């Protein structure tokens, strides 16, 4: 299995440029990351990675944060959410299917609220201070808290896609240029 993974990675590296790999790594960001981290993920050196990142900042695709000890880069989360909503609209799912998915996600969160007697992922994390919990129970609560946060983000995106179903419909007409 490890051999297959290394073969597929080298195949990806042979069929893509370093810039392509940086762009792919950036699309996967869910939190701010340094240029070194992104370069490592892309399998490319630091300086050219940094040049690509700066181009993406100039193009409005990424944001740069220099407030910490290291400069980090993060995507425009609004753009990502809009693209994900469009992908959902274009995926072949019906609005009813997305509505069912939304209901399932919300039901899962309600189940966790009832099971643990908390109202948020951080409140669930706070229960880790309970000395009666064993390591498996702590691990399970941490994993549920991460999944809960993920579902909260998905609920917002799926809800937006449902609300804006007609607006997000693909169009075959080119946009008119304003004069």
TrEMBL record:
Keywords: Coiled coil. Residues 88-115 form a coiled coil. SUPFAM superfamilies: Winged helix' DNA-binding domain (SSF46785). It comes from the Archaea. Residues 1-20 are annotated as: Disordered. This is ArsR family transcriptional regulator.
